[in-house]
Amino acid sequence: MSTLGTEENPLLVAIVGSGPSGFYAAEALIKSEVNVKVDTLERLPSPYGLVRSGVAPDHQKLKQVIALYQKTADSPDFNLIANVNVGTDITIEELCQSHHAVIITSGAETDRKLGVPGEDLNGSYTATEFVGWYNGHPDYRDREFDLSHEVAVIIGQGNVAADVSRILAKTVDELKHTDIAQHALDTLAESKIKEIHVIGRRGPAQAKFTPKELREFGELSDCNSIVREEDMLLNSESEAELQEKSNIASKKIYEQFCEFSKREVDPAKSRNCYFNFLMGPKELIGETKLEKIILEKNQLSGEAFKQSARGTGETIELETGILFRSIGYRGVPIAGVPFHESWGTIPNENGRITDNDGNIIPKLYAAGWIKRGPSGIIGTNRACSVETVQCLLEDLEKLADKTNKAGAEEIYSILNKKNIRYVNFDDWKKVDAKEIEVGDPKGKPREKFTYVDEMLSVIDS
Ligand code: NAP
């Protein structure tokens, strides 16, 4: 058989997941010296993962990266096989038989647990559910969020918490020309929320927002952003952290909080968003649904950059009927692939998947959040996927297999036998065009189809 990676014997790679890391991995493979055919599998009929269903609807600029992914998808060496659930509709073992290598880029689909009593009370939601719901993700289409309470609490001070709080803080006018799902806009239009409390377990120098995201809270049309001046006092370790040149983002965040703390509260605005620090959730209380949260005041301990929050024993109560846990995502296991339970990632060495003892498993690779955990912005995943693809290409000789690989044809044959309806990139283009067409008269970039069946009917029409 001719050398692997040539025109006669192209390297066949299956990528699991069509989010940013999946597309960056496909791009790196297609742009490499090696002759390659990429088959990207996706659970939904729509591609782009978190760019479509995670990035906030009022952050349309961030979604422009899709143009780059479309370029990759237009390559003759790229093929999308969507509406297919890897692990149930087709197994990893089957993909290893049909392809020379498999790259898992399935992201981090679920949330970390808080681990406090009452966490699962009705009225306490995960950020994932809410973000998926307002972004029209089919998994969360039918979730209901009761926004009839005046006080909402968000636990966590990262960019997802910023997204959730900002969506609650904005007016319908600020959202109606975005690609927010219509069902979410209708519910938000009826929202009675007046107070939003964003709770950080550490101090203002440790908040994980990025400066641009925090700045947006100063520009809300009908919501004050409020920080107590006394919360701006720092311990010496936090001061040292902010003086460190490489920590410029935290310094900017701190300065932005200082600016908020000096602002006059505008009584004409109908909502207030409070940033609270050094508080951790101790218990969520309610008979059948959430009624209040008990927060414990914290103090920081440890050296600069390693400070952790310790409870002081002093507690305060906050009455609230709706709470969002936004304390970080975690990956979910895929049948046939090792999983690190406590990290929520697939064990790997620079992208080469290993078993839990560190032994490399041939043919299996990982990239993105399932490889390194949920950190960084969209672009961070590019370098991560490039590293994985480099490892894969270094392994080319080992990947050469004496048996013939049928690639996509074998996948289609397995799916056809099971009567599984799969869609390709041209099918998706029909849905894409229809969404844009439906959104246009409303002044929206698109109106998303939020049920899988709706998308499939558009493809069939
Ligand atoms: P994150 O940035 O890791 O923030 C998690 C927050 O939850 C932190 O404030 C953390 O505090 C807190 N937390 C963790 N465990 C906690 C606990 N047990 N009790 C109380 N608080 C707890 O995670 P994320 O907000 O989910 O964001 C994930 C990634 O996506 C980040 O890299 C983020 O920048 C990125 N993202 C970017 C954008 C954007 O660019 N616009 C938008 C959304 C998300 P500690 O610091 O004390 O751990």
Give a topology summary.
Elements: E1 11-16, H1 20-30, E2 36-42, H2 49-53, H3 66-73, E3 78-82, H4 92-98, E4 101-104, E5 110-111, E6 124-126, H5 127-134, E7 151-155, H6 159-169, H7 172-175, H8 182-189, E8 195-199, H9 211-215, E9 223-226, H10 236-243, H11 248-262, E10 271-276, E11 279-285, E12 292-301, E13 308-319, E14 322-325, E15 329-330, E16 348-349, E17 352-354, E18 360-366, H12 369-372, H13 380-394, H14 396-399, H15 408-417, H16 425-439, H17 452-460
Parallel strand pairs: 1-2, 1-4, 2-3, 4-18, 6-14, 7-8, 7-14, 8-10, 9-10
Antiparallel strand pairs: 5-15, 11-12, 12-13, 16-17, 17-18
Helix pairs in contact: 1-13, 16-17
Bound molecules: NADP nicotinamide-adenine-dinucleotide phosphate.
NADP nicotinamide-adenine-dinucleotide phosphate (NAP) is lined by residues 59, 114, 155-161, 163, 200-202, 206, 208, 210, 213, 280, 326-329, 374-377.
